[in-house]
Amino acid sequence: MDLKTFADNDFDPKKWINKAWSTTGNQEKEIFVANTVTRLQLYMKQLSNSLDETTSQIVTSIPRVLQDASQLQLEGALLHQKLGTLEQQVQGVEEQTGHSIKSLQKIDQLKSRLENAASTLREADKWVALATSLEDILEAGVPTQKEKLEELAEQVTAMTASLEALSDSSDYEMKRMQLETLYNRLEAAISPPLLEALTQMDAGKYNTIKAGDSISI
Questions:
Q1: How many Å apart are CA 98 and CA 103, to the nearest integer?
Q2: pLDDT < 50 stretches in the chain
Q3: What pLDDT is recorded for position 208?
Q4: What are the Cα distances from residue 184, in Å, to 35, 85, 139, 210?
Q5: Which of 7, 100, 130, 146 lies at a CB distance of 3.0 to 4.6 Å from 159, suitable for a disulfide?
Q6: pLDDT tens across 170-195, in order?
Q7: How many CA atoms lie within 13 A of 151 on its CB side?
Q8: Where in the cell is it found (predicted)?
């Protein structure tokens, strides 16, 4: 029995009955009607049961779908919260890293300044010791032995190098004038052997001091 035509918009019951009866070989109408009604009732019962079962499945699955949707919504909220926390942690790490880098830079700069200050102090102490030694030599009298004169020349050369190391100090000009004065006093007090020793040590620096210019290495 073809039941598909029941769903057609232009379904005609009379045509369907006549077509179904013609396929039975002109069976007795009463028998045909009884059999057809019985079969239709059976199909209706099966269809009703199928609809009930489908409806029950839908009704049963709705709470589970809603539960799944609620679970997904909850998981989405938790994920969003975790992402927010992670973003804050990343920002915190970036801020801490930035602060750490700045602190390291400040420490490095401070370290460099302290090292420079310590080096300047050592050179200043060295300068004072050399200047004091030369003053003592001038007061006691310049030696005439060749070995002593060479040591004296080395001492004057060391003062010149020390002065260059103190070129950025605030009293550089005063020290330069002091060294030039010591040169002049030594030149007036020493014999030709010392002049020869000084010029052999560094003729260029000796000539610079003599001319009254700033000392350079």
A1: 9
A2: 205, 208-217
A3: 47
A4: 147, 77, 14, 8
A5: 130
A6: 888 888 888 888 888 877 776 555 55
A7: 11
A8: Golgi apparatus membrane
